[in-house]
């Protein structure tokens, strides 16, 4: 770590600061202003020195208002010093005057540090789990004054200053104190409160002034295109969600219904003028809609601060700040609380894989590659033109682990969906030969990223039982959702990208050709229980020219709607938790764009309303039938009934779980109804039809079995003969005796 430049003695035999120190303070080049400014002992008394630009006269007072001495101007730039009539060292206030008027200010250099040696120890060790209580900007009372304590990690800087509207963005006026053991710079600035924009002015190791930097730990930011951090009171929301949190603390989410509605907060709905809804407005509209539609969780695409709307939040510059697009941070706390009181969980899309290279962000933060790898073969992401975090640096790992804990603690989120895990796990991800560096064992695995993910999961699950983590991971990396102590990455769940890809490929085929692609459906069950899976039909499938889910279905309009309804019921009956992107629950026709709201008027049309009603009823069934959710992640909850009828494109299986009646899921993926079709079932008796996606209420043709079928023992087995409606999925539940 580069140390601040050596400075001359703080005072000569007459108690005056050296000319070199005065010049350096006025020029803003002094590496240790606390050695010069503030209150200092001299000749059994005290002297004060301050830098007050524009002042012609300065008088020192104690915080209680007692006059302590007149200070003389040593430099016309605003350097003052003088003797004090004090018996003990204490903070000072100054009354400054010039020909135009007068003003008061409290001397930040007359206060002691806020951070202590224990903070230094745990920060240096990389084990500090309360960094968000120490770094960033915190409104505090300190040594008799109220103000804001700023702290930022910049170990290679020659100088770091806080700049803002409170000091005319002048980096000479609030230069910070460096804690050399950790590279943390800190400063308590009295007399400022919440709502003040600020940044850090950093002089790098080469003495070059960097672009002003936003605070990595900022808890609030300006609304884009402005990029400053903003001082903020800590969240003061009075939570009322203990019942919700207690339920999930004591639950095994693998055995609970988890049906996720993926939302982009900036385009779900908009005001008529195209502006964003606030968190409170979203709470009033989105939460009741999700409750009515039956989803158990809302998963937001990244809502932490980001400068560029079309990045959808995936290029974040403020991991600790809910985006100003939707109002104050407390508004997000109110949203989460409101969702919890309504029985809905909130999951955040979280991006620890990479960060943008905007000048005000983390890139080259202190004039060096601090948060990222210096070598672009490890530190630059070719797909997104972003920087990759240096997972081998304990301070960077601590920054990210603390962020995961921060959202769980401060905002009570129920889970983190971790973006782009595959890009983190492989050193050669999207790279050609020669563009990546093997690990210490010569392999392609990013061992440092593996260690980070394992630590993050251990800390989240260890400190916040009831919070789940979900990996977006598209490869065959083993044990993604198994515990760390068993050699896994420690995630609770993993997105099943293979299910999404194979099923969408299958349904894009004309029905007459589906018999040749039967394996696209059956193959997924070979590995369906190798991880704890979430089945995702996410935003990635409805952007960049991919159309919508309705548009991906083969056939004419009637067939598209019928196939989509059948697909949803197939998915809700398939083992694994569910995720559906907003708008697809009512068969949005236009491809999603972050720049416009969903086409809510489509719900006025019968076919679209029918798809929504199908999803609503599926969510109800999924939540109310243990057979459909309680063994989502365990093979004993699934058994094939019909696996090889490729000629008719029919699939049937049984879902079962303790505490509930078994449910048979039967799909016919051709537009031809099958009369007198025999389906084997495990138990004789009456099986009630609990959903039929061809029902007229959903927009179908209305073909079915009168609400029930009878299973009988015949020919050494038990089966039921039934009608399979065209392009449909039906579910049958064994009726109780």
UniProtKB/TrEMBL annotation:
Per the UniProt entry, the Enzyme Commission number(s) are: 2.4.1.18
Annotated GO molecular function terms are: 1,4-alpha-glucan branching enzyme activity; cation binding; hydrolase activity, hydrolyzing O-glycosyl compounds
Stored Pfam families: Alpha-amylase_C (PF02806), CBM_48 (PF02922), GlgB_N (PF22019)
Record keywords: Transferase included? yes
Q: Which SMART domains match?
A: Aamy (SM00642)
Which stretches make up the Glycosyl hydrolase family 13 catalytic domain? 262-629
Q: Which GO terms describe its cellular component?
A: cytosol
Q: What class of enzyme is it?
A: transferase
Q: Which UniProt keywords apply?
A: Carbohydrate metabolism, Glycogen biosynthesis, Glycogen metabolism, Glycosyltransferase, Transferase
Q: Which GO terms describe its biological process?
A: glycogen biosynthetic process
Q: Which Gene3D superfamilies match?
A: Glycosidases (3.20.20.80), Golgi alpha-mannosidase II (2.60.40.1180), Immunoglobulins (2.60.40.10)
The protein's annotated catalytic reaction(s) are:
Transfers a segment of a (1->4)-alpha-D-glucan chain to a primary hydroxy group in a similar glucan chain
Task: Note the superkingdom of the native organism.
Answer: Bacteria
NCBIfam families per the UniProt record, alphabetical: branching_enzym, PRK05402.1, PRK12313.1
Q: Could you give the subunit structure recorded for this chain?
A: Monomer.
Return the similarity comment.
Belongs to the glycosyl hydrolase 13 family. GlgB subfamily.
- Per its record, how is this protein called by name? 1,4-alpha-glucan branching enzyme GlgB
Q: From which source organism is this entry?
A: Mesorhizobium temperatum
């Amino acid at each position: 770590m580069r140390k601040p430049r050596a400075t001359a003695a703080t005072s000569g035999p007459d108690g005056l600061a050296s000319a070199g120190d005065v010049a350096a303070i006025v020029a803003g080049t002094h590496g240790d202003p606390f050695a010069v400014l503030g209150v200092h002992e001299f000749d059994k008394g005290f002297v004060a020195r301050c830098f007050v630009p524009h002042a012609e006269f300065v008088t020192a007072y104690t915080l209680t208002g007692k006059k302590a001495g007149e200070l003389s101007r040593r430099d016309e730039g605003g350097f003052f010093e003088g003797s004090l009539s004090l018996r003990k060292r204490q903070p000072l206030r100054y009354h400054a005057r010039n020909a135009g008027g007068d003003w008061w200010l409290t001397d930040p250099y007359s206060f002691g540090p806020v951070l202590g040696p224990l903070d230094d120890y745990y920060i240096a060790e990389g084990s500090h789990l309360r960094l968000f209580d120490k770094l960033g900007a915190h409104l505090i009372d300190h040594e008799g004054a109220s103000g804001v304590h700023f702290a930022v990690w910049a170990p290679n800087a020659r100088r770091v200053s806080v700049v803002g509207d409170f000091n005319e963005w002048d980096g000479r006026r609030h230069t910070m104190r460096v804690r050399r053991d950790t590279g943390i710079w800190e400063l308590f600035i009295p007399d400022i409160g919440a709502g003040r924009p600020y940044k850090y002015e950093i002089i790098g190791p080469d003495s070059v002034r960097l672009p002003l930097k936003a605070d990595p730990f900022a808890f609030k930011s300006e609304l884009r295109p402005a990029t400053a951090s903003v001082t903020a009171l800590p969240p003061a929301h009075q939570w009322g969600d203990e019942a919700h949190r207690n339920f999930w603390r004591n639950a095994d989410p693998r055995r609970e219904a988890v049906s996720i509605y993926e939302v982009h907060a900036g385009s779900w709905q908009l005001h008529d003028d195209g502006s964003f809804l606030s968190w409170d407005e979203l709470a009033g509209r989105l939460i009741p809609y999700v409750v009515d539609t039956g989803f158990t969780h809302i998963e937001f695409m990244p809502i932490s601060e980001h400068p560029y709307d079309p990045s959808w939040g995936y290029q974040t510059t403020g991991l600790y700040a809910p985006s100003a697009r939707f109002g104050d941070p407390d508004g997000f706390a109110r949203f989460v609380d409101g969702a919890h009181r309504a029985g809905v969980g909130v999951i955040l899309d979280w991006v620890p894989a990479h960060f943008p290279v905007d000048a005000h962000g983390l890139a080259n933060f202190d004039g060096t590659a601090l948060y990222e790898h210096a070598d672009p073969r490890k530190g630059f992401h070719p797909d997104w033109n972003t920087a990759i975090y240096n997972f081998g640096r304990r301070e960077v790992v601590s920054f990210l682990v603390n962020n995961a804990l921060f959202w769980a603690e401060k905002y009570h989120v129920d889970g983190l969906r971790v973006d782009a895990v595959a890009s983190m796990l492989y050193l050669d991800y999207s790279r050609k030969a020669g563009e990546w560096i093997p690990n210490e064992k010569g392999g392609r695995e990013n061992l440092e990223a593996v260690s980070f993910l394992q630590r993050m999961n251990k800390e989240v699950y260890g400190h916040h039982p009831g919070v789940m983590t979900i990996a977006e991971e598209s490869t065959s990396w083993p044990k993604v959702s198994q515990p760390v102590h068993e050699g896994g990455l420690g995630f609770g769940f993993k997105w099943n990208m293979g299910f999404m890809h194979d099923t969408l490929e299958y349904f894009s085929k004309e029905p007459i050709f589906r018999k040749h692609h039967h394996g696209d459906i059956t193959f997924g069950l070979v590995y369906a229980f190798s991880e704890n899976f979430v089945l995702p039909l996410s935003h990635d499938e409805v952007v960049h020219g991919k159309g919508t889910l309705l548009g991906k279905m083969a056939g004419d309009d009637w067939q598209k709607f019928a196939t989509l309804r059948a697909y949803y019921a197939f998915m809700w009956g398939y083992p694994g938790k569910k995720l559906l992107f907003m708008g697809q629950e009512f068969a949005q026709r236009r491809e999603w764009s972050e720049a416009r709201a969903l086409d809510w008027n489509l719900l006025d049309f019968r076919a679209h309303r029918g798809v929504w009603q199908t999803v609503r009823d599926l969510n109800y069934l999924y939540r109310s039938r243990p057979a459909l959710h309680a063994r989502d992640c365990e093979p004993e909850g699934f058994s094939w009934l019909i696996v090889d009828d490729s000629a008719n494109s029919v699939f049937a299986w049984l879902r079962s779980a303790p505490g509930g009646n078994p449910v048979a899921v039967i799909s016919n993926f051709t537009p031809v109804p099958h009369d007198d079709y025999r389906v084997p079932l495990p138990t004789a008796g009456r099986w009630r039809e609990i959903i039929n996606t061809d029902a007229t209420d959903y927009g179908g043709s209305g073909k079915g079995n009168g609400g029930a079928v009878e299973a009988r023992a015949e020919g050494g087995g038990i089966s039921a003969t039934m009608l399979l409606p065209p392009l449909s999925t039906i579910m049958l539940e064994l009726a109780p005796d």
